[in-house]
Every structure is written in C-alpha cells, then in structure tokens.
Design the sequence.
C-alpha cells in the first residue's frame, strides 16, 4: 500500500511540475525588411562588409535560405511587406500594389489610405493611413492573439506602408516619416497623441544634423571596384547632382526634408528611432514576446535613382551593414544575447538600369507605359467617342472604364482585342493578353502561377502586360525600377539569427510566404489567417 501511495505521489508531483512549464519563446522578435535588396548583394559586397557588421554575422552565425523567391507578381513594396508578414499572396490579402484601380470605387486607391483617420504628429495629411485595406492578419496580429494582447508590437519605417502592413491590424503602434516636417508620425488608428519619447526624438532634429554632415564615401573612391564609375548620365539627380560628394545637403534644412530618404542617413534615422522604441516601450524586457517590425526604406530610393551598379548603392549597403551590426550589438546589450530572434529579408529586388545593360552589350530597354496608354486613349477616343477608356495602367495591367463603355454599349472584348494587338507591336513588350484568358494562353507554369497569385478581381485590370527581360516600365530616362516575375526582381535574401535558430544554410527553393509560418512554428502560435506558405524546418533548433 505504501508503494502505491509513493508512486501516486511521484506521478502527482511530476504532473504538477510539468503543468508549470511554459512555452519557450524569445523575449523579442525583430523583423528587418530591406526595401529593394537583391539576393546577390549579400555576396557581391561580401568582402567589403565588416566582420562585426550585420550581414556577415547573420550569414556565418545564423541560417541563410539562399534560394528564396517571391511567388507572385507584381513585385512591389506593399505586396512584399504584406506577404512577408502575412504568409500569403495579393490574391488573398487584397494588397495588389502600392496603388490600384478599385473597380467598386472607380478611382485609384493607395494601399494604406484611410480617410476615416487623421494624422498624429503633424498637420499634414501624411498620417491618414491604416491597415484596413489588408484583408488578412499578420504574424504580429497572431502573436498578439496568442498572448491575449499582452505582447507589444511596434512597426517602424520611413514609408508608411512599410510600417503599417507589417505591424498589422492590432499593433500597439506604427510610425512613419513625414517628409513635410522631418518628423516621425502616426495616425489616430493607433493613438490620439504621440508618446513623449517620440516627441523627444523628433525634437532632436537629427535630419538637420545629417544634412549638415552630407553624404561622402565611406572608403576611398578607388576601392569601389564593384560599381560603375561615378556620375553616369542614366543616374537621376535626386540630390541635386549624381556624383560624390553630396556635401550641399545643408541647403535643404527647413526646406525639403524628403531628400534624406535618398541617402544612407535615412537608414540611420530609422535605426535610431527603432532603438528608441525598444528602450521607451521596454520591448523584450519581460518573458512575454514582443515584436519590432523594421523596414529600411532608403535602399529603395537610392536604387531607383542610381541603379544597382552605382557607387551610391554600394556605399549605401556598406553603411547599412554597419547599421545592422550596430542594431545587433544594441540588442545584445539591451535584450540579452540569445534572448531575441531576428530575420532579414527584402520586399523585392530591382532590374539593372537599361542603359547600363546596353553599354555592356546586354539586353534591356525602357517602355514608357504611361505614354503608350495616353496614345491608345487618343486613338480609342477617335474610334468610339469616349475619353479615357483606359483609366489606369497600374501594376503592369490596363484597367478599362466600364461605366463609360457600358453606357455607350461598346463591345469590351473588341476593345480588349484591339489593345492586345497594339501592345504586341510595342518594342519591349513580350506578352499581352486578357486576364480572363490567363489560364489558357501559352505561358511557363511558374509565370502563370505568379500572375494568378497576384490577381484579386476587384483590384486588378483587364489586360496583363509582360515586358521582355531587362526592360522596365519607365517614368523618365534615368534610374530603374522593379515589379515583374524575373529573378532580378524576385530572388531575395532571407537570413535568420538568434534564439531558436540553427547555424547553416539551405539551397532548396523557399518562398517569401514561408517566413510567417516559420515564425509561427518558432513561437508556437497560429499562422496568419490567409497564410499559404510552409514552415522551413531546417533552420529551427
């Protein structure tokens, strides 16, 4: 009898002990998106990255997914940010571009616009934003749900969409940069007044300080052997010129606070604000996992203006590497080594500047779709007596004016057929077809799947346009862009580091949509509501 009693007591004690065990999670999750980072930047500049910087530390001490791809098109900022954090594609999230033509509202809609809220932190309209246009939850929302909203979630990015679409619907706050005043702002969706720490940060006027410093090369000009020579004619003069040193930025103090975005100091500003958020909001200070979603927007502004082969881009990434190392050092000291998990990825890549391609005997060119659309509209107006039959050419698709066509009883299929034939005649256009025929026209399966994944009927057009490889949809004769299915736009970095992460790499194909499910597995929480990705098991301890 005594033996039975002791055995029962042992089992009861063991059960009580096991019932007191809690799910193990890091104190802080940090998500880093580098806006416009091609995967090859990891290795193109590898020898120049600092040994204590961010990229080498994550590559060599963490886990790298070497073949991570975006599984949809268009490959633009809003789609990429929302996909990484929701684990889904535009066809489900509804975020089909930075802008889209909305069939129900019959107007162009910005991805995070919300006229029902107001700016907090300035008198401009830059804060009339929220995540309401995103139809799914993010991994940050799921963390909040899993902890009964005890976890803190903060989103930070110069671009409003970079901070909002990542932090999700239930975030404690999202902050972005107001070019009109040079301050960080938010909206009444999140708060009625900026916290004191944000006001204090803005009062430092760091942008004025950065303008005074200007932008010069981090290293001697002769060492930038991975770039073209400086001052190429196909580079934009975004800062008043297109050559180093950019030492006249001080003239913009009090006049133009948007210029900072096209310099590496935009990343510095973002980093310092993110660090202030960790301290002031006590992120990672207890055992309830918090989430800091940071997007570095400046590489996109620099890349669009100067191109991926410019000295400006190389210097920008060498400086960003140091900033990332600074962030990891900060997290080590503030949260604790081994107490946080970081992932780093990109929302999209970028095409080489067409003129760079041509001067090196490589295929490429510019297609001025806005001009093409305008010319088509003139001809269609003469043919049918209707102005602006094409109302938008957003996201490599043409959108038709259905109300006008219906009232005039014009055969839409006739108009679409005419447009498709005309588009095929344009140099630089590889394919054009009616979206309703997407699953019938001859296309490689990968491209067909990407276009299907990007298609949400209420926010997409009637005609799809695919450019030839190396060609871009241009707005000017300088700079470059992104947005299509090609590897230079879709092959992105994916690095993991810290708590719960193995050291190593995989070369198998992984996808942008796998990031959120993998975080969910790491944290033992539910995947976001529209997630279609799968867990990357190789990286989990």
Sequence:
């Amino acid at each position: 009898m005594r033996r039975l009693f002791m055995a029962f007591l042992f089992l009861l004690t063991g059960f009580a002990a096991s019932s007191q065990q809690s799910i193990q999670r890091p104190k802080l999750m940090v998500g880093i998106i580098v806006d416009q980072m091609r995967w090859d930047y990891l290795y193109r500049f590898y020898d120049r990255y600092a040994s204590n910087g961010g990229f080498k530390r994550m590559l060599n001490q963490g886990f790298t997914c070497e073949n991570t791809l975006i599984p949809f098109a268009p490959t633009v900022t809003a789609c990429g940010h929302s996909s990484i954090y929701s684990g889904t594609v535009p066809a489900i999230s509804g975020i089909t571009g930075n802008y889209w033509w909305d069939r129900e509202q019959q107007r162009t809609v910005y991805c995070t616009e919300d006229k029902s809220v107001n700016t907090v932190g300035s008198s401009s309209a830059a804060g009339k934003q929220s995540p309401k246009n995103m139809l799914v939850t993010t991994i940050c929302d799921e963390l909040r749900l899993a902890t009964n909203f005890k976890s803190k979630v903060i989103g930070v990015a110069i671009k409003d969409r970079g901070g909002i679409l990542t932090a999700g619907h239930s975030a404690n706050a999202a902050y972005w940069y107001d070019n009109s005043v040079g301050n960080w702002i938010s909206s009444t969706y999140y708060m009625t007044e900026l916290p004191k720490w944000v006001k204090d940060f803005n009062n430092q006027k760091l942008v004025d300080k950065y303008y005074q410093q200007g932008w010069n090369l981090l290293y001697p000009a002769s060492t930038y052997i991975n770039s073209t020579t400086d001052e190429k004619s196909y580079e934009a003069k975004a800062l008043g010129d297109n050559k180093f040193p950019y030492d006249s930025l001080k003239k913009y103090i009090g006049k133009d606070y948007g210029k900072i975005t096209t310099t590496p100091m935009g990343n510095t500003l973002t980093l310092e604000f993110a660090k202030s958020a960790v301290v002031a909001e006590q992120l990672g200070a207890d055992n309830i996992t918090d989430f800091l979603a940071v997007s570095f927007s400046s590489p996109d502004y620099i890349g669009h203006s100067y191109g991926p082969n410019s000295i400006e881009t190389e210097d920008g990434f060498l400086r960003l590497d140091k900033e990332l190392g600074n962030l990891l050092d900060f997290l080590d000291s503030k949260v604790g080594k081994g107490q946080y998990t970081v992932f780093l990825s990109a929302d999209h890549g970028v095409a080489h500047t067409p003129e760079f391609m041509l001067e090196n005997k490589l295929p490429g060119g510019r297609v001025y779709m806005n001009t093409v659309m305008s010319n088509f509209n003139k001809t269609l107006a003469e043919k049918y007596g209707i102005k602006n039959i094409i109302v938008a050419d957003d996201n490599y698709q043409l959108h038709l004016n259905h109300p006008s066509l219906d009232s005039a009883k014009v055969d839409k299929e006739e108009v679409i057929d005419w447009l498709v034939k005309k588009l095929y005649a344009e140099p630089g256009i590889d394919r054009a077809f009616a979206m309703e025929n997407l699953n019938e026209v001859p296309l490689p399966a990968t491209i067909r799947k990407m276009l299907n994944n990007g298609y949400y009927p209420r926010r997409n057009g009637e005609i799809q346009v695919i450019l030839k490889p190396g060609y871009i949809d241009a707005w000017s004769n300088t700079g470059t862009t992104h947005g299509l299915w090609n590897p230079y736009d879709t092959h992105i970095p994916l690095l993991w580091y810290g708590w719960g992460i193995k050291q190593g790499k995989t070369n198998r194909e992984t996808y942008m949509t796998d990031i959120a499910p993998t975080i969910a597995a790491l944290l033992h929480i539910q995947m976001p509501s529209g997630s279609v990705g799968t867990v990357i098991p190789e990286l989990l301890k």
User: Anything to note?
Assistant: The two ends are 44 Å apart (CA to CA). Confidence is low (pLDDT under 50) at residues 5-20. The longest helix spans residues 311-336. The chain is about 35% helix and 15% strand.
